[in-house]
């Protein structure tokens, strides 16, 4: 005859927790060793170069297309950048932005507008509804359809 040994519930619960923890640790170790380390090299050099001084400027003025804008900028050997740019706006004003930037204060801009904005006067026009739609009249320039075959003869029963 078969005998069954009854163990307390807390012992079975502790055994299940223990097996779950062991399984998780085995999975973690297996996952860690399953993939090798990346083959690319690690670069330990730092490419932090000292700021290089520069100066540039450009501009466009085309009266035919109403393009009028420019930009100039300069930098020193300490990373301090200053410059300005301007553009002709559609309302006739010129927007000029003077800016300064460095590592401590960030980007600081001063915006100015030259002249007064000009807008065309609004002149409403009287509403004029479109004419009513009339369907086009087609002329029948084609011959009437007439079948070219004889009607089928069905057998009589």
Automatic annotation (TrEMBL):
KW Signal (keyword) present: yes
Keywords, ordered alphabetically: Cuticle, Signal
A GO-annotated cellular component: extracellular matrix
One of the record's GO molecular function terms: structural constituent of cuticle
Coiled coil: none
InterPro entries: CHIT_BIND_RR_consensus, Insect_cuticle, Insect_Cuticle_Struc_Prot
Top-level taxon of the source organism: Eukaryota
Endpoints of the signal sequence: 1-31
UniProt name for this protein: Cuticular protein
Organism: Daphnia magna
């Amino acid at each position: 005859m078969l005998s069954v040994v009854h163990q307390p519930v807390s012992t079975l619960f502790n055994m299940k927790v223990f097996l779950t923890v062991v399984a998780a640790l085995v999975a973690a170790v297996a996952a860690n060793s399953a993939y090798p380390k990346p083959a690319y090299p690690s670069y330990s050099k730092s490419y932090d170069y000292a700021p290089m001084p520069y100066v540039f400027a450009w501009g466009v003025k085309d009266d035919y297309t109403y393009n009028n804008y420019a930009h100039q900028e300069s930098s020193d050997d300490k990373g301090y950048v200053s410059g300005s740019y301007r553009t002709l706006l559609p309302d006739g004003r010129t927007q000029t932005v003077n800016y300064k930037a460095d590592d401590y204060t960030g980007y600081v801009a001063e915006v100015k507008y030259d002249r007064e904005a000009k807008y065309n006067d609004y002149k409403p026009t009287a509403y004029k509804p479109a004419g009513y739609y009339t369907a086009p009249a087609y002329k029948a320039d084609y011959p009437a359809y007439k079948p070219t075959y004889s009607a089928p003869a069905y057998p009589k029963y």
